[in-house]
Amino acid sequence: MSPTSTSSDVLVIGGGIIGLVTAWRAAQRGFATAVVDPEPGGGAAQVAAGMLAAVTELHYGEQTLLGLNLASARRYPDFAAELTELTGRDLGYRRCGTLAVALDADDRAHLRELHALQQQSGLESQWLSGRECRRLEPMLAPGVRGGLRVDGDHQIDPRRLAGALVAACERAGVVFHRTWAERLTVVRDRAAGAVLADGTEAAAGQVVLAGGSLSGRLAGVPDDVLPPVRPVKGQVLRLTMPLRHGPFLSRTVRAVVRGSHVYLVPRESGELVVGATSEELGWDTTVTAGGVYELLRDAHELVPGITELPLTETRAGLRPGSPDNAPLLGPTGLEGLLLATGHYRNGVLLTPVTGDALAHALATGELPEEARPFTPKRFSTATALTEQPA
Ligand code: GLY
């Protein structure tokens, strides 16, 4: 074999947390696995706040996704413990809970509806008065009118998670090609690897496309299996909390302010993550004065004391949005090509279940039961036509 040719059982295109967990789980199943990415562990996880918010981020019409989100949330304690034991790295996994609060009568009505939906869905959440919210979190604004306490919505530090997944992959023998994938190789109607930007021809028995918001742009992927993902920009701020006089915030606090979601995620390290805008602006990752202003303005309405804190970082990332806000997982209409993309707002939360689902699909050719609704084939024209009611 020439020096510019390599071969593996599984080639994962994209080394963000979704590509990495897929590669790690595939390698654990005995597949010789390679990952293509110029910067493994980079991507949206470097920006994300890391809320594991299956319950507080529940939306009408997304009950199917809720099932997958809960399945992944249930896996998190063991998943985090396994990664930490294997790599010696602390992931910042914190079972601190979340408090979603309302600042005015409209917000309160919206939260009441969310509470009703959570109860219909059998989820645990508790309605609190404004005073009860402030007793839990004394830094909250005096104007808070009520809130929902959800002790089951936790957090993790996505940067630590990404670093640990790179380490776990290395330990499991995953090979890293630190470059871009330029084109999918298709031989006799079957995905057979990729040509990389450095000229390497990386042959593979199966290819997993896990390129986040870039997944729809890989050359060589036939149009009918190209994932319909788009970038949805999120600007996120990082501040530093004082650790001297007890916690500034002891749990994630969130609200909808003037129609925009704002959340404050306090880490044990003293980092306070404030997010996030949601902007359909293509590939733009500029941090704007307006974005920072709106986040600080809304966060300040919730927790006025934040204006005293050092602002240490501003950054923007791209969520991989899909047409139904749910991920695309598993085999496609092109033999040998699988997808793990389109995780939109839930990439960090869905990391454990995605790794398990893709490893199962690589080994058996089929998705496990819980992941079947997320087959990429739900977007293919042929499937849509055959599923039309008579
Ligand atoms: N899940 C939080 C966000 O997408 O902003």
From TrEMBL:
Give its E.C. classification number.
1.4.3.19
Under the heading NCBIfam families, the entry gives: thiamin_ThiO
Which residues does the UniProt record annotate as the domain FAD dependent oxidoreductase?
9-360
Do you know which InterPro entries this protein is assigned to? Answer: FAD-dep_OxRdtase, FAD/NAD-bd_sf, Gly_oxidase_ThiO
Q: Known catalysed reaction(s)?
A: glycine + O2 + H2O = glyoxylate + H2O2 + NH4(+)
EC main group: oxidoreductase
**Which protein, by its recorded name, is this?**
glycine oxidase
UniProt-listed Gene3D superfamilies:
D-Amino Acid Oxidase, subunit A, domain 2, FAD/NAD(P)-binding domain
Asked if the Swiss-Prot or TrEMBL record annotates the protein with the keyword Oxidoreductase, the reply is: yes
Question: Is this entry keyworded Oxidoreductase?
Answer: yes
| Provenance organism | Streptomyces iakyrus
Cite the annotated pathway: Cofactor biosynthesis; thiamine diphosphate biosynthesis
Instruction: Write out the GO MF terms.
Output: glycine oxidase activity
Tell me the domain of life: Bacteria
- Keywords in alphabetical order, please: Oxidoreductase, Thiamine biosynthesis
